[in-house]
Amino acid sequence: MNKQIISLVGFATLLSMLQGCAPSVYAVDRPEPSAYVFTPGEATDASQLNFVDARADAYTTFSSGALPMGLTFEGESLKPVDFLAKFTLAELAARGISVEPGGGDAVEIRINKVVMRNYRATGFSPFTTVTMLSADVVGSEGVNRVGAFVVRGKVPVWSFGEVIEPTLNQPLELMVQDLAAKINMHLYQQSVSDATVQELIAKVNSAPDDGLAYLSVYQLGFSNNPSAVGALIEMTKSPHEYVRCAAISSLGTINAHEQVDYLISIFRSDGTWRDRAMAVKALGDIAVMGSDQAMNFMRESVENELAGETAAGAEWTREILGLYLRS
Q: What average pLDDT does this structure show over 13-29?
């Protein structure tokens, strides 16, 4: 019996070491372009976009956190602004919006902050990344703030390489798609068809416990089609965390301004910190699209209602405020 106990303890120790050890550098993949095409809209003069690195010194390190996670792309250190520029243009093209990189009179996409933070409590807990973006779309109509916030976690079982796809590649892809969707909303106002919305809803509802179902929920938010709002509201009640959080976030991406009270109620609920943080992210999206109610809540209430909270979720929520509120 004692030998069995010793063997079990030894195995548990070895497994913990395997789970806890991680290389310091990982290669990430190119984001897959969207398969969901926007319907043609009115012609626009915004045929060129100029991506500008406007990051303060404090945000020039992209990947940081509890574990050293140097990221490379195509054999070189990941350059996040260049990565965003290249693949946001590719995402817009995949959706049917043809734009080119440009300068001079081109619409400026000013990247103010783009970071990926990671944390992990123990060798048995999920490795989690929080990917954040704050940018300004600067065109002839003025300056429009856009933000993105993606949380993903995975417990590595046999090797730490298991985290690459869910916690590195997928957040990067979602960040690119989120930025492309908001550029579309501000400049092109194109949307996917009602039929595509119904296809995505059916896909999520047929297998909500599929580990990738949440990606289709995000696509509903990127659709810029208000017919998706009702389904997104239902999905915010899902027992599956990533489906639920993606739906909450997507109510902001799609500018469901009539759902501000509902999002405030999620923030004030006793739900998980991720639900509450995503509600603030969605309120930020809606606020910068012109909702005084959402903006006033962001400016006057969120920080006060977080007073005294010190958990990681409160810290991330405070960071979300900074993505949307100009100093």
A: 62
